[in-house]
Amino acid sequence: MKITAVRATPVNIPLEAPFYWSVGIYPGTSKTIIEVETDEGLVGLGESPSWDCAEVINRHMGPLLIGCDPFDIVGCERKCVPEWCVVQNTDDASVVKAFGGIEIALWDIRGKAWNKPLYALLGGAVRKDIPFTEYFCYRLEKDGCGGEMTAEAVADYCQNMQEQHGSTMFEGKLSLGDPFLETATVKLLRERLGDKAMIRLDANMSWSLSTARQILREIEPYNIRNYEDPVATFEEMAQLRRHSAIPFSTHIPDLRRAVALGTPDSIVTNFAVLGGIRRTIRFIGACETMGVGFWCYSGDAGICTAAYLHMVATTEWMHEPSQALLRWQVDDVIEEGPFKPVNNHVPVPEGPGLGVTLAPKALKRCHERFVNDGPINHFYDPNHPGRMRRLPLD
Between 20 and 30 A from 288 (CA), which of 11, 155, 177, 230? Predict the structure, then answer.
Protein backbone atom coordinates (compact mmCIF):
# COMPACT_ATOMS: atom_id res chain seq x y z
CA MET A 1 0.00 0.00 0.00
CA LYS A 2 1.23 3.49 -0.88
CA ILE A 3 0.17 7.02 -0.01
CA THR A 4 -1.20 8.77 -3.09
CA ALA A 5 -2.45 12.09 -1.68
CA VAL A 6 -2.44 14.16 1.51
CA ARG A 7 -4.96 16.99 1.98
CA ALA A 8 -5.14 19.44 4.88
CA THR A 9 -8.20 21.67 5.24
CA PRO A 10 -8.48 24.48 7.81
CA VAL A 11 -11.91 24.71 9.44
CA ASN A 12 -13.79 26.78 12.00
CA ILE A 13 -15.89 24.92 14.56
CA PRO A 14 -18.23 27.38 16.35
CA LEU A 15 -19.65 27.17 19.86
CA GLU A 16 -23.26 27.96 20.69
CA ALA A 17 -22.13 31.03 22.68
CA PRO A 18 -18.72 32.65 23.28
CA PHE A 19 -17.14 32.31 26.72
CA TYR A 20 -14.61 34.33 28.66
CA TRP A 21 -11.17 32.95 29.33
CA SER A 22 -8.22 34.67 30.95
CA VAL A 23 -7.06 36.72 27.97
CA GLY A 24 -9.96 36.83 25.58
CA ILE A 25 -13.30 35.60 24.32
CA TYR A 26 -13.55 32.05 22.96
CA PRO A 27 -16.25 31.74 20.25
CA GLY A 28 -15.03 28.45 18.77
CA THR A 29 -11.91 26.80 17.41
CA SER A 30 -9.89 26.71 14.18
CA LYS A 31 -8.45 23.29 13.35
CA THR A 32 -6.83 21.47 10.44
CA ILE A 33 -8.58 18.36 9.09
CA ILE A 34 -6.30 15.87 7.32
CA GLU A 35 -7.07 13.19 4.74
CA VAL A 36 -4.40 10.69 3.72
CA GLU A 37 -5.38 8.68 0.61
CA THR A 38 -3.87 5.36 -0.46
CA ASP A 39 -3.70 3.41 -3.70
CA GLU A 40 -6.02 0.78 -2.21
CA GLY A 41 -8.85 3.27 -1.70
CA LEU A 42 -8.45 3.67 2.05
CA VAL A 43 -8.52 7.22 3.43
CA GLY A 44 -7.14 7.96 6.90
CA LEU A 45 -8.51 10.88 8.89
CA GLY A 46 -6.40 13.10 11.13
CA GLU A 47 -6.63 16.43 12.88
CA SER A 48 -4.09 19.04 13.94
CA PRO A 49 -4.86 21.59 16.67
CA SER A 50 -3.90 24.73 14.71
CA TRP A 51 -5.23 26.11 11.42
CA ASP A 52 -1.72 27.08 10.28
CA CYS A 53 -0.71 23.41 10.15
CA ALA A 54 -2.65 23.20 6.87
CA GLU A 55 -0.02 25.12 4.93
CA VAL A 56 2.84 23.12 6.47
CA ILE A 57 1.12 19.89 5.41
CA ASN A 58 -0.07 20.93 1.94
CA ARG A 59 3.14 22.67 0.89
CA HIS A 60 5.82 20.61 2.57
CA MET A 61 4.85 17.36 4.26
CA GLY A 62 2.21 16.07 1.85
CA PRO A 63 4.50 16.00 -1.22
CA LEU A 64 7.20 14.24 0.80
CA LEU A 65 4.80 11.43 1.75
CA ILE A 66 3.57 10.54 -1.76
CA GLY A 67 4.63 6.95 -2.46
CA CYS A 68 5.41 6.15 1.18
CA ASP A 69 4.07 3.10 3.03
CA PRO A 70 1.37 4.38 5.43
CA PHE A 71 2.10 1.53 7.85
CA ASP A 72 5.69 2.79 8.24
CA ILE A 73 4.91 5.57 10.71
CA VAL A 74 8.53 6.01 11.75
CA GLY A 75 9.62 6.29 8.12
CA CYS A 76 6.90 8.87 7.44
CA GLU A 77 7.93 10.87 10.48
CA ARG A 78 11.56 10.87 9.40
CA LYS A 79 10.49 12.24 6.01
CA CYS A 80 8.64 15.15 7.61
CA VAL A 81 10.18 16.03 10.99
CA PRO A 82 13.80 17.06 11.62
CA GLU A 83 15.84 15.55 14.45
CA TRP A 84 13.37 15.38 17.34
CA CYS A 85 15.55 16.75 20.16
CA VAL A 86 16.53 19.74 18.02
CA VAL A 87 12.93 20.53 17.01
CA GLN A 88 11.92 20.58 20.67
CA ASN A 89 14.71 23.06 21.34
CA THR A 90 13.35 25.65 18.90
CA ASP A 91 10.40 28.02 18.97
CA ASP A 92 8.68 26.41 15.97
CA ALA A 93 6.50 23.50 17.01
CA SER A 94 4.38 23.65 13.85
CA VAL A 95 6.12 20.64 12.28
CA VAL A 96 5.38 18.52 15.36
CA LYS A 97 1.69 19.49 15.46
CA ALA A 98 1.35 19.11 11.69
CA PHE A 99 2.89 15.65 11.55
CA GLY A 100 1.03 14.68 14.73
CA GLY A 101 -2.23 15.14 12.85
CA ILE A 102 -0.94 13.15 9.89
CA GLU A 103 0.17 10.38 12.23
CA ILE A 104 -3.35 10.03 13.62
CA ALA A 105 -4.53 9.52 10.01
CA LEU A 106 -1.91 6.79 9.50
CA TRP A 107 -3.29 4.90 12.51
CA ASP A 108 -6.79 5.30 11.06
CA ILE A 109 -5.54 3.66 7.83
CA ARG A 110 -4.09 0.75 9.82
CA GLY A 111 -7.40 0.12 11.55
CA LYS A 112 -9.35 0.29 8.30
CA ALA A 113 -6.89 -2.01 6.52
CA TRP A 114 -7.10 -4.63 9.28
CA ASN A 115 -10.80 -4.00 10.06
CA LYS A 116 -10.04 -3.32 13.72
CA PRO A 117 -10.92 -0.35 15.95
CA LEU A 118 -7.95 1.71 17.03
CA TYR A 119 -8.21 0.60 20.65
CA ALA A 120 -7.70 -3.02 19.51
CA LEU A 121 -4.51 -2.02 17.67
CA LEU A 122 -3.30 -0.33 20.86
CA GLY A 123 -3.70 -3.48 22.93
CA GLY A 124 -7.41 -3.76 23.75
CA ALA A 125 -9.88 -1.87 25.89
CA VAL A 126 -9.87 -1.62 29.67
CA ARG A 127 -13.04 0.50 29.47
CA LYS A 128 -15.58 1.27 26.76
CA ASP A 129 -17.40 4.25 28.29
CA ILE A 130 -15.04 7.21 28.34
CA PRO A 131 -15.48 9.96 30.97
CA PHE A 132 -15.69 13.66 30.14
CA THR A 133 -16.49 16.71 32.23
CA GLU A 134 -19.23 19.19 31.48
CA TYR A 135 -17.89 22.71 31.01
CA PHE A 136 -18.98 25.92 32.70
CA CYS A 137 -17.83 29.49 32.11
CA TYR A 138 -19.05 33.02 32.16
CA ARG A 139 -20.61 33.24 28.69
CA LEU A 140 -21.97 35.94 26.46
CA GLU A 141 -25.53 35.46 25.19
CA LYS A 142 -25.98 34.38 21.56
CA ASP A 143 -29.24 33.33 19.88
CA GLY A 144 -30.82 32.41 23.20
CA CYS A 145 -27.82 30.38 24.44
CA GLY A 146 -25.29 31.28 27.10
CA GLY A 147 -25.58 34.51 29.05
CA GLU A 148 -24.28 33.06 32.34
CA MET A 149 -22.52 36.11 33.79
CA THR A 150 -23.19 35.68 37.52
CA ALA A 151 -22.40 33.01 40.10
CA GLU A 152 -26.09 32.14 40.28
CA ALA A 153 -26.39 31.73 36.51
CA VAL A 154 -23.33 29.45 36.32
CA ALA A 155 -24.67 27.33 39.17
CA ASP A 156 -28.10 27.17 37.51
CA TYR A 157 -26.49 25.99 34.28
CA CYS A 158 -24.51 23.22 35.98
CA GLN A 159 -27.51 22.09 37.99
CA ASN A 160 -29.51 21.91 34.75
CA MET A 161 -26.78 19.72 33.16
CA GLN A 162 -26.93 17.49 36.21
CA GLU A 163 -30.70 17.09 35.93
CA GLN A 164 -30.92 16.78 32.12
CA HIS A 165 -27.85 14.68 31.32
CA GLY A 166 -26.87 12.99 34.58
CA SER A 167 -23.69 15.07 34.74
CA THR A 168 -21.69 14.88 37.97
CA MET A 169 -18.25 15.90 36.62
CA PHE A 170 -17.64 19.58 35.92
CA GLU A 171 -14.74 21.80 34.91
CA GLY A 172 -14.74 25.47 34.12
CA LYS A 173 -13.11 28.85 33.80
CA LEU A 174 -14.16 31.67 36.10
CA SER A 175 -12.04 34.27 34.37
CA LEU A 176 -13.57 37.72 34.76
CA GLY A 177 -10.58 38.97 36.75
CA ASP A 178 -12.46 39.09 40.07
CA PRO A 179 -11.14 36.63 42.69
CA PHE A 180 -14.09 37.29 44.99
CA LEU A 181 -16.54 36.35 42.20
CA GLU A 182 -14.55 33.17 41.57
CA THR A 183 -14.66 32.05 45.20
CA ALA A 184 -18.35 32.92 45.49
CA THR A 185 -19.12 30.87 42.36
CA VAL A 186 -17.18 27.86 43.68
CA LYS A 187 -19.05 27.95 46.98
CA LEU A 188 -22.40 28.13 45.20
CA LEU A 189 -21.48 25.31 42.80
CA ARG A 190 -20.64 23.00 45.69
CA GLU A 191 -23.87 23.91 47.47
CA ARG A 192 -26.01 23.28 44.37
CA LEU A 193 -24.23 20.20 42.95
CA GLY A 194 -23.76 18.34 46.22
CA ASP A 195 -20.78 16.82 47.97
CA LYS A 196 -20.11 14.04 45.44
CA ALA A 197 -19.91 16.11 42.25
CA MET A 198 -16.45 16.62 40.76
CA ILE A 199 -15.46 20.27 40.39
CA ARG A 200 -12.28 21.24 38.52
CA LEU A 201 -11.12 24.76 37.71
CA ASP A 202 -8.98 26.21 34.91
CA ALA A 203 -7.48 29.68 35.27
CA ASN A 204 -5.31 29.74 32.12
CA MET A 205 -2.55 31.44 34.15
CA SER A 206 -4.93 34.21 35.26
CA TRP A 207 -3.63 35.01 38.69
CA SER A 208 -0.58 36.48 40.35
CA LEU A 209 0.97 34.35 43.04
CA SER A 210 -0.53 36.45 45.85
CA THR A 211 -4.06 36.37 44.40
CA ALA A 212 -3.81 32.64 43.69
CA ARG A 213 -2.88 32.04 47.35
CA GLN A 214 -5.97 33.99 48.41
CA ILE A 215 -8.27 32.05 46.07
CA LEU A 216 -6.88 28.65 47.01
CA ARG A 217 -7.24 29.41 50.72
CA GLU A 218 -10.91 30.28 50.19
CA ILE A 219 -11.87 27.35 47.95
CA GLU A 220 -9.92 24.50 49.55
CA PRO A 221 -12.79 23.52 51.92
CA TYR A 222 -15.02 22.90 48.87
CA ASN A 223 -13.23 19.76 47.62
CA ILE A 224 -11.77 21.04 44.35
CA ARG A 225 -10.51 18.07 42.36
CA ASN A 226 -7.92 20.02 40.37
CA TYR A 227 -6.91 23.58 39.49
CA GLU A 228 -5.31 24.04 36.08
CA ASP A 229 -2.62 26.69 35.53
CA PRO A 230 -3.64 28.99 38.41
CA VAL A 231 -0.39 30.94 37.85
CA ALA A 232 1.99 31.46 34.94
CA THR A 233 4.89 29.12 35.72
CA PHE A 234 5.74 25.74 37.22
CA GLU A 235 7.97 27.55 39.71
CA GLU A 236 5.05 29.64 40.99
CA MET A 237 2.94 26.47 41.21
CA ALA A 238 5.68 24.95 43.37
CA GLN A 239 5.38 27.93 45.70
CA LEU A 240 1.60 27.58 45.76
CA ARG A 241 1.99 23.93 46.73
CA ARG A 242 3.26 25.10 50.13
CA HIS A 243 -0.08 26.77 50.77
CA SER A 244 -2.63 24.34 49.31
CA ALA A 245 -3.25 20.63 48.86
CA ILE A 246 -5.40 21.16 45.73
CA PRO A 247 -3.72 19.34 42.77
CA PHE A 248 -2.54 21.42 39.80
CA SER A 249 -2.44 20.64 36.08
CA THR A 250 -1.05 22.37 33.00
CA HIS A 251 -1.22 22.39 29.20
CA ILE A 252 2.59 22.66 29.00
CA PRO A 253 3.94 19.12 28.40
CA ASP A 254 7.24 19.62 30.24
CA LEU A 255 7.40 16.39 32.20
CA ARG A 256 11.02 16.80 33.31
CA ARG A 257 10.31 20.13 34.96
CA ALA A 258 7.10 18.90 36.56
CA VAL A 259 8.96 15.98 38.14
CA ALA A 260 11.89 18.13 39.25
CA LEU A 261 9.62 20.68 40.95
CA GLY A 262 7.02 18.21 42.24
CA THR A 263 4.24 20.09 40.47
CA PRO A 264 2.04 20.33 38.42
CA ASP A 265 0.44 17.00 39.25
CA SER A 266 -1.02 16.35 35.78
CA ILE A 267 -0.46 17.29 32.15
CA VAL A 268 -3.42 18.03 29.90
CA THR A 269 -2.75 18.21 26.18
CA ASN A 270 -3.50 17.07 22.64
CA PHE A 271 -1.99 14.02 20.89
CA ALA A 272 -0.87 16.04 17.86
CA VAL A 273 0.97 18.48 20.14
CA LEU A 274 3.07 15.53 21.30
CA GLY A 275 3.73 14.36 17.74
CA GLY A 276 0.95 11.78 17.32
CA ILE A 277 -0.38 8.63 18.93
CA ARG A 278 2.90 6.70 18.98
CA ARG A 279 4.74 9.44 20.86
CA THR A 280 1.74 10.05 23.12
CA ILE A 281 1.82 6.41 24.25
CA ARG A 282 5.45 6.85 25.23
CA PHE A 283 4.72 10.17 26.97
CA ILE A 284 1.86 8.71 29.00
CA GLY A 285 4.07 5.77 29.97
CA ALA A 286 6.67 8.22 31.28
CA CYS A 287 3.95 10.10 33.17
CA GLU A 288 2.79 6.85 34.77
CA THR A 289 6.34 5.95 35.81
CA MET A 290 6.81 9.36 37.43
CA GLY A 291 3.32 9.51 38.99
CA VAL A 292 2.13 12.44 36.86
CA GLY A 293 -1.47 12.36 35.65
CA PHE A 294 -2.56 12.80 32.04
CA TRP A 295 -5.83 13.68 30.35
CA CYS A 296 -6.93 15.48 27.18
CA TYR A 297 -7.94 19.08 26.67
CA SER A 298 -11.09 20.39 25.03
CA GLY A 299 -12.14 22.11 21.84
CA ASP A 300 -11.21 19.57 19.18
CA ALA A 301 -13.33 18.42 16.27
CA GLY A 302 -14.68 14.89 16.15
CA ILE A 303 -11.63 13.23 14.59
CA CYS A 304 -9.25 14.11 17.42
CA THR A 305 -12.01 13.48 19.97
CA ALA A 306 -12.37 9.96 18.54
CA ALA A 307 -8.62 9.46 18.98
CA TYR A 308 -9.03 10.50 22.64
CA LEU A 309 -11.81 7.96 23.08
CA HIS A 310 -9.68 5.11 21.76
CA MET A 311 -6.59 6.09 23.75
CA VAL A 312 -8.49 6.38 27.04
CA ALA A 313 -10.21 3.07 26.28
CA THR A 314 -6.87 1.28 26.17
CA THR A 315 -4.83 3.21 28.78
CA GLU A 316 -5.32 2.48 32.48
CA TRP A 317 -3.35 5.56 33.55
CA MET A 318 -5.84 7.92 31.87
CA HIS A 319 -8.40 7.55 34.63
CA GLU A 320 -9.42 11.21 35.04
CA PRO A 321 -12.17 12.60 32.77
CA SER A 322 -10.97 14.67 29.84
CA GLN A 323 -12.13 18.24 29.38
CA ALA A 324 -15.08 18.69 27.05
CA LEU A 325 -16.66 21.56 25.16
CA LEU A 326 -18.71 18.89 23.39
CA ARG A 327 -22.04 20.12 24.75
CA TRP A 328 -21.42 23.56 23.26
CA GLN A 329 -20.15 22.60 19.80
CA VAL A 330 -22.78 23.25 17.14
CA ASP A 331 -21.00 21.70 14.17
CA ASP A 332 -18.48 19.00 13.31
CA VAL A 333 -16.77 17.45 10.31
CA ILE A 334 -17.83 13.87 11.04
CA GLU A 335 -21.18 12.15 10.56
CA GLU A 336 -21.17 10.94 14.17
CA GLY A 337 -20.40 14.30 15.78
CA PRO A 338 -20.47 16.36 17.78
CA PHE A 339 -20.20 13.73 20.53
CA LYS A 340 -22.37 14.47 23.58
CA PRO A 341 -21.77 12.94 27.03
CA VAL A 342 -24.60 11.13 28.82
CA ASN A 343 -24.08 10.39 32.51
CA ASN A 344 -20.55 11.83 32.12
CA HIS A 345 -19.53 9.35 29.39
CA VAL A 346 -19.17 8.92 25.62
CA PRO A 347 -18.86 5.35 24.24
CA VAL A 348 -15.75 4.50 22.26
CA PRO A 349 -16.51 4.04 18.53
CA GLU A 350 -16.50 0.40 17.45
CA GLY A 351 -15.85 0.84 13.72
CA PRO A 352 -12.46 0.21 12.08
CA GLY A 353 -9.70 2.73 12.77
CA LEU A 354 -11.02 5.80 14.54
CA GLY A 355 -14.55 4.57 13.85
CA VAL A 356 -15.78 7.90 12.48
CA THR A 357 -16.86 8.99 9.00
CA LEU A 358 -15.92 12.27 7.33
CA ALA A 359 -18.96 14.30 6.30
CA PRO A 360 -17.96 16.09 3.05
CA LYS A 361 -20.75 18.67 3.24
CA ALA A 362 -19.88 19.48 6.84
CA LEU A 363 -16.18 19.75 5.99
CA LYS A 364 -17.01 22.14 3.17
CA ARG A 365 -19.28 24.19 5.43
CA CYS A 366 -16.66 24.44 8.19
CA HIS A 367 -13.95 25.31 5.66
CA GLU A 368 -16.10 28.02 4.05
CA ARG A 369 -16.61 29.46 7.52
CA PHE A 370 -12.82 29.63 7.86
CA VAL A 371 -12.38 31.21 4.42
CA ASN A 372 -15.10 33.80 5.00
CA ASP A 373 -14.30 34.71 8.62
CA GLY A 374 -10.61 33.90 8.89
CA PRO A 375 -9.06 32.00 11.79
CA ILE A 376 -10.88 32.48 15.08
CA ASN A 377 -9.34 35.12 17.33
CA HIS A 378 -9.39 33.98 20.97
CA PHE A 379 -7.73 37.10 22.34
CA TYR A 380 -10.02 40.04 21.59
CA ASP A 381 -11.77 42.03 24.32
CA PRO A 382 -15.49 42.64 23.62
CA ASN A 383 -15.47 45.55 26.07
CA HIS A 384 -12.61 47.30 24.27
CA PRO A 385 -12.91 46.78 20.48
CA GLY A 386 -9.59 46.70 18.67
CA ARG A 387 -7.67 45.67 21.77
CA MET A 388 -6.46 42.36 23.13
CA ARG A 389 -7.79 41.31 26.52
CA ARG A 390 -5.22 41.42 29.32
CA LEU A 391 -4.75 39.62 32.61
CA PRO A 392 -6.17 41.46 35.64
CA LEU A 393 -3.86 43.84 37.49
CA ASP A 394 -3.78 43.03 41.20
Answer: 230
Q: Indicate the pairing of strand 266-269 with strand 293-296.
A: parallel
Judged against a pLDDT cut of 90, whether residue 382 lies above it is answered with no
Nearest to 101 by CA among 388, 333, 372: 333
Closest CA to 98 of 284, 342, 334, 273: 273
User: By C-alpha distance, which of 232, 236, 296 is closest to 23?
Assistant: 232
Residue 223: which pLDDT band, with cuts at 50, 70 and 90?
A: very high
* H helix or E strand, kind and range, residue 249: strand 248-250
Do 367 and 343 sit in the same domain of this protein? no
Number of domains the chain is built from? 2
Instruction: Judge whether 80 and 99 are in contact, CB under 8 Å.
Output: yes
Nearest to 330 by CA among 10, 12, 9: 12
Beta-carbon count within 10 A of 110 CB: 18
Distance CA 208, CA 230 (A): 8
Single-letter residue type at 260: A
Residue 88: predicted pLDDT: 67
